[in-house]
Amino acid sequence: MNSPFSEYLDSGYSPSDVEIPLIKALIQQNIDIIGSIDKEIKEAEDSLAALKARRKANKIFIRKHQALIAPIKRLPPDILSTVFLACLPFIECTEAAMTCNHPAVVISQVCRHWRQLAFDTPLLWSKIQLILPYVHCDPYHPPDDVDRVNGGTAAVFDSVVQRLFDATTIWLSRSKSCPLTIFMKASEGVAGGVDTSQSKTLEGSVLMGLGRLVGLLLSESKRWEQVRFKLAIIGNSRKSRLSRLLFLAPQDVPILRKTSIVINSVDFPISPGVESEHTNFWDGIAISTIHGQALQSLTLACPKNAAKLQGLQVWGGKG
After folding, report:
1. What CA–CA distance (Å, rounded) separates 175 from 261?
2. pLDDT tens digits, residue range 254-276?
3. Which residues contact 25 (CB under 8 A, 6 or more apart)?
4. For residue 258, with 0-12 CB atoms within 10 Å meaning exposed, 13-18 middle and 19 or more buried, which class applies?
5. DSSP H helical segments within the chain, as ranges?
6. Where does the chain cross the membrane (predicted)?
């Protein structure tokens, strides 16, 4: 930019009294020019924003009209429901957890048509996954803090059980009369409890919560087709809730076809002067009959009690 004072810029020159008004006039002139430029920039930005808005509106228009002619829109309901079923993950995967991220739930939230079709596809809701946290009782807290700490842990466990109970109720309802595939991983033990009195609150919450879930599953045992249990069971049969899943009569599981059970015993520390209440639970497993009218496959593992499996009788309707 040209200026009558170019040769003096960036120097130690001191303008005279006559030159100062001229310099101020030059400054004001360029301030006015900047104001004009800013106005042009604002107009250009407004024009650009308007163009971008028009472009976005046209892209939305195109996308929505492309959706109208999407091939999947023309699939008959039976084919589309088959596609839905192909989205289901393996029963033990994290993605199979019964949460808002489960494929069945995601599919049901796409549109009204898909939602209704998802509800009309019972098989989409026929896989029940129940994975419960392993509860830990910290024995290193001072006695005065034990109840507070255990009470907080019990509350967390109760909230998990309630969420699983509610989700299972929904899945069972939406699966209607379909055969069920069930995966359950749970423990009746409370780790870390040195004194049984310290873990009383936790133990009560664990057993009560497991009892609710087991009762819900047993209410639909006639629909069990495939079950996989990974259970840690206490030896006291009067307290155990999970063991109720293992002693069912043939008429209770008429269509049970495939069973896989992994059982570990829970070893509780016994306080001085307290007699063990362990029963012949493991002997009961060894001499009991695990059978079903339609049973085709059975896998049974008891890592801590392998010797107890000797002589186990397994009867199945189809060998």
Report:
1. 24
2. 999 998 888 876 544 433 333 33
3. none
4. middle
5. 19-68, 77-86, 103-108, 112-119, 143-174, 200-218, 281-287
6. none
Closest of 198, 247, 238, 227 to residue 299, by C-alpha: 227
29 and 143 in a single domain? The answer is no
- Domain assignment present for residue 113? The answer is no
Domain of residue 182: give its range.
126-316
- Amino acid at the residue 241: R
pLDDT tens-digit map of 282-294: 444 433 445 667 8
Residue for token digits 């004001």? 28
pTM over 0.90: no
Q: How many CB atoms lie within 10 A of CB 268?
A: 21
Residue 177 tokens read as: 């009369």
Q: Is 282 in contact with 267 (CB distance < 8 Å)?
A: no
How many residues does the structure list for the chain?
Answer: 319
- Separation of alpha carbons 246 and 318, rounded Å: 20
Residues 35 and 175 in one domain: no
In a domain, 151, yes or no: yes
CB 130 within 8 A of CB 242: no
Do residues 284 and 180 both lie within one domain? yes
Q: Which two tokens mark 263?
A: 């059982």
d(CA 226, CA 316): 14
What CA–CA distance (Å, rounded) separates 223 from 48?
62
Please say whether the dihedral angle defined by the alpha carbons of residues 8, 10, 11 and 13, taken in this order, is positive or negative. Answer: positive
What is the count of structural domains for the chain? 2
